[in-house]
Design goal:
92 residues, 3-stranded parallel beta sheet
């Protein structure tokens, strides 16, 4: 998924991510531009605090967020960061 950082339906997005965590799905989000990507970091759930509208946590971390501007000068760093968590997501 490629985004400029704006999420207008955060609650619904989190609900879908929690549902997807039960499925064999990995979600990779690439943030482009100079937007505030704080909400994308929340979806990435590296801190384990993500909960849906009913208070349920995802069964696994199925989202990886990468900010393009931090990697755009080195395509290998971008590749590495985009794919970093997918092997762990497949194992679970």
């Amino acid at each position: 998924m490629i985004t400029d950082g704006l999420i207008t339906d955060m609650e619904q997005t989190v609900d879908y991510i929690v549902k997807c965590s039960e499925l064999p799905v990995s979600i990779v989000i690439v943030g482009v531009g100079n937007a505030d990507f704080e909400r994308m970091q929340i979806l990435d759930n590296d801190d384990g605090k993500l909960k849906d509208s009913k208070g349920k946590k995802p069964s696994r971390d199925c989202v990886q967020f990468v900010e393009f501007n931090k990697c755009k000068k080195d395509i290998n760093t971008l590749r590495k960061n985009v794919l970093m968590e997918i092997p762990n997501q497949i194992e679970k």
